[in-house]
Prior knowledge:
By secondary structure, this protein is an alpha/beta fold. It has a single domain, classed as Rossmann fold (3-Layer(aba) Sandwich). It is about 25% helix and about 30% strand. It is built from four helices and seven strands, in the order βαβαββααβββ. Strands 1-7-6-2-5-4-3 form a seven-stranded mixed sheet, sandwiched between helices. β3 (about 65-70) and β4 form a beta hairpin.
Amino acid sequence: MKQIFYSSSVDExxxxxxxxxxxxxxxxxxFVAMYGDLGVGKTAFTRGLASILAPEARIKSPTYTxxxxxxxxxxxxxxxxxxxIEDDDELYSIGFDDYVQNGICVVxxxxxxxxxxxxxxxLVTIERSADGDNNRIITIEExxx
Length: 145
């Protein structure tokens, strides 16, 4: 199933994500693979997810730390930035499998780890729209195992 949303602000991107987050409140581990260029709103989308799934979390980009872990309502909320991950060994050395199996994982720059995305992941692509600097096209696709 694929859904397409249009956003004209950071607040609207966060609102779209918070609505989507309600689908992730299953009590089981979930994986959100995020795609998009630098500055399109991946971290803003993650803030929207966290507003529902980990309301106490202060979301900021984990570019240098690779993983930010937050206490979620029912499961840990992991926000990963794999931009600097270069290979399988490096990915798994950060405990990637543990995150995937035990919490809700939101992974920025998922195009860098195509081999590690679970078959039942949600794929979120954020793109700049041609009709304005702040306008975004957000595509959410649910894959099934």
